[in-house]
Input
Amino acid sequence: MMIAYLDQQLRLGPGAEADPHPAGGELDPELEAASEDFGGVARALPAVVLRPGSADDVAGAIRLASRSDRLTVAARGNGHSVAGQALAPGGIVLDMRAMARIELVFSDGGQPCADVGAGVLWGELLEWGVREHGMAPRSWTDYLGLTVGGTLSNAGISGQAFRKGPQIANVAELEVVTGEAERVVCSPSHRSDLFFAALGGLGQFGIITRARIPLYPAPRLVRWIRVVYSRIEEYVADAESLVACGEFDYVEGFAFLNRGDDPASGWDSVPIGPGSVFEQDLIPQGSGPLLYCLELALNHELNDDVDKRMEELLRPLKYIKGLEFSLEVSYVEFLSRVNLAESEARANGSWDAPHPWLNILISASNIVDFDHEVLQPMLKDGIGGPMLIYPLLRSRWDPRMSVALPDSEVFYLVALLRFTRPYPVGPPVEDLISQNREILNRCRSNGYDFKLYLPHYKTQPEWAHHFGKNWARFVNLKARFDSRAILAPGQLIFSRAH
Ligand code: FAD
Output
């Protein structure tokens, strides 16, 4: 039935609109769901949504699209993009959640790996690995309701990345169906050009149908720690010394409001663990409107010396003594820590509101200036959600991967994860988008070395600027692996060629 519907679309010819009401009645709920994303700002109806069961199905859809001179194909992971990256206006959306098989395999050298369909959620992989095999991947995202194929098309970053690399640096093998409808199994040693192109490749070179992800013994427990700073200079000095020494298993952090009237973004957003209280009297006089919280974790087993290790590692840090919090949780609980925030956001309506998020990777040499020139003056009242700021190391990223990074070895992720209520309770989304634009303008006019993470631009010159010296390589790979620009049209990098 799907193929017949597709054929009907193919016969419509150039410029024809897809009929979103195939039965002549209500809008098809599957099409409607595939016409929007978590960002809630971009919207475009596809012609059809298919649920591929295999790489051959994916290749079949791409072949069908290539028979027309206008149809495009977008893989949709869990639709958690924020600017329409997984949309296919009038084209074919492949619901990759249909490819959700997980299997334990061993490499030739005996390394255990999870062989996973691209539509598996990281949370599903965690549950399966820990519960069934006592093993887990070692690089994560904060939120686990994202697909393996979706984050591998971007990077996949969290507090482990400074040490173990992003998720795209933790893949042993991929199965990819290119825009030429060729199924390729690739790895660092076989068809490495496509392997590295697809990692962070924004879906431009092929659809990842399967990924092989190395597994390691899962730690039993995690000591989860938060410490508070009043000055960005001390915060970044400590954060950078911790990522350099590599003793912690996880280093992240965020800015929060130096106020008590906002439970989601103020003092009360920091304490972890039942009964722990934020003693605001400890904040030094003259502190600014924002404070900073370094979030750390030590993986450990029962009956080891974690208390002593924690004490030794925290001793030299310059945080405000007395404003430290710690909690013992299981590994799964730690990695699932964002679930509570998701439930709260669903309950108060901010999960379903638009999310014009802004993620910037910015050189360590600019981060203090960014705080003084951008964060403090522009965002002193917060954004209704987390403002993550934490360092990463360029040497953990393979330069053959497609993702664009700042030039310096140490750079920060600044993630402005807006969670405001829908208008008119919250601000109009246009105001938030124009604030993002203003932030980027300031970054440019101040000459910061930065790149957008989860980038979204509307014109090719902007994309060329984003990829910089690697743009020619990106264009060349596109010509080889998706010469008619059938794939991932929602990224707005290339136009469908006849
Ligand atoms: P989608 O949004 O569906 O797709 C993203 C892009 O990849 C699209 O262009 C799509 O066509 C393409 N694509 C999807 N699947 C495939 C595939 N199999 N093969 C080829 N191309 C494909 N990111 C982090 O790095 N760290 C975080 O901690 C983090 N936390 C997040 C928390 C929330 C609540 C949200 C909404 C997002 C978060 N992200 C984070 C961003 C996330 O990595 C991106 O949204 C990413 O796109 C994954 O989402 P998805 O699986 O829903 O993919």
About this structure: Residues 37-38, 74-81, 85-86, 96, 118, 141-143, 146-147, 149-151, 153-158, 202-203, 207-208, 454, 488, 490-491 surround flavin-adenine dinucleotide (CB under 6 Å). Residues 10-18 have pLDDT under 50 and may be disordered. The first strand starts at residue 48 and ends at 50. The domain at 2-97+481-491 is CATH 3.30.43.10 (Uridine Diphospho-n-acetylenolpyruvylglucosamine Reductase; domain 2).
